[in-house]
DNA sequence: TTTT
DNA sequence: TTTT
């Protein structure tokens, strides 16, 4: 009859959410999310990061744009959706996104003060202790989307 | 630190699993899986189907190739992986797949006898009656789940 | 900060849903759900069944009481809740329940016609043939999922 | 055929893992895990905490005892199991547990240094910034198990 | 108490 | 390309 299409992610935002307002007043937000996995390969600790395109609609988009920021840790629940689009050269392409159905902020409370500035190398005492997630993203910079 | 990357699907196979044997003897199987969602739009019942690329490795690939067939209902648990490849025109493309970590067959037992032919409109009486063939599965006894 | 408390089950109802109407007009439904696991132990196929107490509230309770029946296969998503109560002898006891947040009917469509009688060994021909009654469901059109 | 019995939790340990070694050398670890949910009730922010009995076996128990500690944030995936036992007065009781199948440590890296001392009111600089989760547990002290 |  |  019906089916199940469910995605559960816990990871860090690669960028601040990007918010757009469509005609009709609908809000959409999106951001890349990194989920990392570490495993041993030939006795060495290897980290593999997977990047996900997260899309949020309406009220969820507005909450996300208010509370989520680059580097923050979030739990996201949603569904997979593959859509096609035309790139600049009019070539048809496909992209798979995770359409969020709800999310929960994880980590320290201080990480989620609304309206806090996002300076990558902030000297904010609360950010100081965090691991160096954000800078390493800036360096590699090769999000596949 | 670490993250979570989990996908849970319940849907029907769009095709029989396609099995390949890589150099080194590693088996890979893949198939498209459809998850359907029905909702009301302007008083009308609309069905929206999402297609997922499922990939299975090693032992899981072998079990899948033995028991799963076009049309069957399965529960699949896995993780998202986006990989790039070059198409025939040497254009770099991305595809997102669900790498299965385990699966469970749902539905009637008769749907899962190994080696059964896949005729779309089969009039095989066994497909209409539940609980048939259960003994033959008991006899082979090698269902690893 | 916040947490995640999520349960995902696919199993068969052990009984028809039991519906109660609380003061204030709130509807609650509940039923036992069996999830079975089979594994090999000393070369023998062993089945282990786990029973879950499922509880549904309000609209979800009403839909469940209309469509779910003893023996049917369902996907249930919800959260764990342990509550205390006093038994007949005034002894404090604890019970853990799965409070359903949504559910999806799996299996053949004919399994889910509303108001069908529940005779365990029914010889009703409609239970043997797939795809029957589909139009009658289309006509009523009020399946909210 | 088969079923699905899956639990996904993100929460904080209420106590250090308790490790036991059974005859035959099997290791079992267990601890209470709190998942909190906050919602608005009559305009006020209410927090509701659910406690879960987590049980881990063998290698997973050993890893847990090494890395997990009271107050730490973890993602746990497992299955529900209700078992009966006799209490001191020989009364038969039931308890529902989450048998962990894997777990992932979340939060700051410094939270998971192995062998770190667990003093509730530690003056360890890394613990200082944490929110006051641990003390509030000590005060209420009413774990239902 | 279900189902396969 | 599946299924209901």
UniProtKB/TrEMBL annotation, chains A, B, C, D:
One Gene Ontology cellular component: nucleoid
Location of region: Disordered: 109-145
Xref: Pfam families: SSB
NCBIfam families per UniProt: ssb
Subunit structure and binding partners: Homotetramer.
The organism's place on the tree of life at top rank: Bacteria
InterPro entries with a match to the protein in the record: NA-bd_OB-fold (IPR012340), Primosome_PriB/ssb (IPR000424), ssDNA-bd (IPR011344)
Entries under Gene3D superfamilies matching the protein: Nucleic acid-binding proteins
Keywords, sorted A to Z: DNA-binding
GO molecular function: single-stranded DNA binding
UniProt record, GO biological process: DNA replication
Name of the gene encoding the protein in the UniProt record: ssb
Full protein name: Single-stranded DNA-binding protein
Chain intervals with Polar residues compositional bias: 116-127
